[in-house]
Amino acid sequence: MSGTTTAAARPRRRASGAGAGASRWVVLVVLCVSLLLVALDATVLHVAVPAVAEDLKPGAVELLWIVDVYPLVCASLLILFGTLGDRVGRRRVLLCGYGLFGVASAVAALAQTAEMLILARALLGVGGAMIMPATLSILRQVFPDRRERALAIGIWSAVAAVGAAVGPLLGGFLLEHFWWGAVFLVNIPLMLVSLPVGRMLLPESRGDRDGPWDVTGALMAAGGLFGAVLGVKRLGGGAAMASPFTVLPLLAGAALLLLFVRRQRRLAHPLVDLRMFRRPAFSTSVGCIVLAMLALVGLELIAAQYLQLVLGLSPLQTGLRLLPLTIAAMAAGLAGARMLRRFGPRRMVCFGFCLTAAAVLTLTAMGGTDDAPLLLSGFVLLGFGLETTLFGAYESMLSEAPAEQAGGAAAIGETSYQLGAGIGIALLGSVMNAAYAPGLRSVPGVPQHASDRAGHSLGEAYDIAGGLGGSAGAALRRAARDSFVHGLHVTLLVSAVLLLLGAVMALRLPRVMNCAESPAAVELPAPREVADPRVTA
């Protein structure tokens, strides 16, 4: 492809520019800081929601948008900004994302109304969509050797796990000492440092620049993903499938995505080269990411409810109980490169899925009383298995994509991650509700209308039981707890089946880690090797 030649010919003209003398490992540190901020912002607001609700007095719909607009906008724009970076420069898009993220953080911290906070969170989502795919595509550029790239991706994924876990803990600490806006202000000094450092150290790179950038296709992808993710999130939040506010976004999103695919197949210079999906390793890796996230997010949500509502743990105690899952995920990310070289993508991803399924089946022994050793072992296996799966899938997907399509490939991977998470909440949440509600239909001494309301959620059942009081309230509380544990067991079994299907899917991945790049995947030299006229093969 002509973009390969262009990409290979440009480095010498940029040798004296940004990033020319930077070690690729220093570049990795800068990229990891970028990722840490985005991952933190996805979860740091969760513990601040009660304080935001008390201060800004948002309605129920406004509060939902305050929480959901960031991941919704971010997921919708990943393909747009990932492919834009391939055209205009990945570092340029990343630095613009830094600036927007910092400005939006200041607006969010000082917001005086719910509408202003929603707007600021949407702008944070735009900034996050500019940053996320750029970090992966630049990482692919500066690590042309697949062995080193595997180690870099392992560190990158470990940082992502740290950010997601530290977010609620950092938010809780800031809320204890400051007001809720402090959870956003923490981004500003880091962005003020990241902007000049990134401009000095990060290398610029572009992909295939033949033909015009498909603006219409980019907007179709953004609109389609927005509708699809919004519909899936509504289903995950318990909205009725027949509701027009659920059906219409899903139908509109699906229609736009189908039109986007048809358009890309007709164009001589498509926004996203869909031929990548003809490569079994690429398409299988994307499917594995979706299945892994589908299992993880739904389980984490239900596990947090189990720890707090069934076992009666505080939010801080719940976070500490889930911490071993994050530590195990970090360990898997750091060990991933060595595992990949030794076992190859097929066995590594299969092993990760099977280990995660074993962890899920182990957790079916959870009951109405606390069993700390069981939870510890289950969460450790769960974290290690899922991160092993995600690491192997991400590395295979990124290595299979041509270098000139790195931004688009990274955006596809991140979009798969977000879609898998949304579908997981919707699917496993539906399974949980279907298994939970029947146990509350006929509780002795409890009126039918109260039983029906208690079937909505365990938290609502506890509130109704408190209002009833006496033996009827105690019976309803006991029945709700037992039904929730039963629903948890059913959900875990469904998750185990999905994970085993993922293990079967992973059999299509390559048996060994091929460290020789194909001609279509020629890389830009790493920054300190820019003067070398050779093209890495």
UniProtKB/TrEMBL annotation:
GO terms for cellular component: plasma membrane. One of its GO terms (molecular function) is transmembrane transporter activity. Residues 27-514 form the Major facilitator superfamily (MFS) profile domain. PROSITE patterns: MFS (PS50850). It is a multi-pass membrane protein. PANTHER family: MAJOR FACILITATOR SUPERFAMILY MULTIDRUG TRANSPORTER MFSC, METHYL VIOLOGEN RESISTANCE PROTEIN SMVA. This is Transporter.
